[in-house]
Amino acid sequence: MVDVKILQQEGYNFLWVDKKLWMWDIPEEDKEQKQIADQAYGDVLVAGYGLGLVQKYLLKNPKVKSILTMEILQEVVNTNDQIFGELYGDVVIGDFLNFKFTKKYDCVIGDIWVEISKNGLKDYIQFKERAKYLIKENGKILGWGQDYYEYLLGGKDGIPKC
User: Fold this and answer.
1) Closest alpha carbon to 143 in 157, 127, 155
2) Averaged over 5-15, what is the pLDDT?
3) Are β-strands 12-17 and 4-9 bridged in parallel, bridged antiparallel, or unpaired?
4) pLDDT over 50 at 158, yes or no
5) What pLDDT, in 10s, does the model give residues 78-126?
6) Quick one: which of 25, 47, 141, 159 has the fewest CB in 10 Å?
7) For the sheet containing 20-24, what is the strand order?
């Protein structure tokens, strides 16, 4: 069984998974998640629930028609529901990388890596490759730390790979 806790300190929430800090809602993170949600439209698929920050902002975005989140850990969903008393959007338990989706989405948003560093690049690449098959033509792939990962991949301004 996975140990999931949301600890509160100084008015902020910190999501711990098996004693590893997974996500937080400090102002910088909140701002980043809002910026991602503001770019979304139509039917949106989110990989990873975390603390539900991006989902909360997606619900406020008038361009978004529907939100489906794929979360691999039931314990994350249960703990969020227990602590906050609500979940944002529809949530399905399963592995984003292997789940059999029955439709395509206008936007796919990823937040399934722990940190924005070279250590998360492999996870970002797996997310991006999977997301390519799940977006509609002219759809959008968005993610936490995406600019940094694309920089490492040489996807911005022709910068070579690191």
Assistant:
1) 127
2) 96
3) antiparallel
4) no
5) 999 999 999 999 999 999 999 999 999 999 999 887 778 888 899 999 9
6) 159
7) 4-9, 12-17, 20-24
Per DSSP, 23 falls in state E
Pairing of strands 105-110, 20-24: unpaired
Domains in the chain with CATH codes = 30-153 (3.40.50.150)
Distances from the Cα of 45 to the Cα of 39, 42, 112, 131, 140, angstroms: 13, 10, 13, 9, 11
* DSSP state letters, 70-119: EES-HHHHHHHHHHHS---SEEEES-TTT---SS-EEEEEE--SSSSSGG
Q: Which residue type is seen at 64?
A: V
Nearest in space to 25 (alpha carbons), one of 7, 10, 12: 12
As a whole number of Å, the end-to-end CA separation of the chain is 37
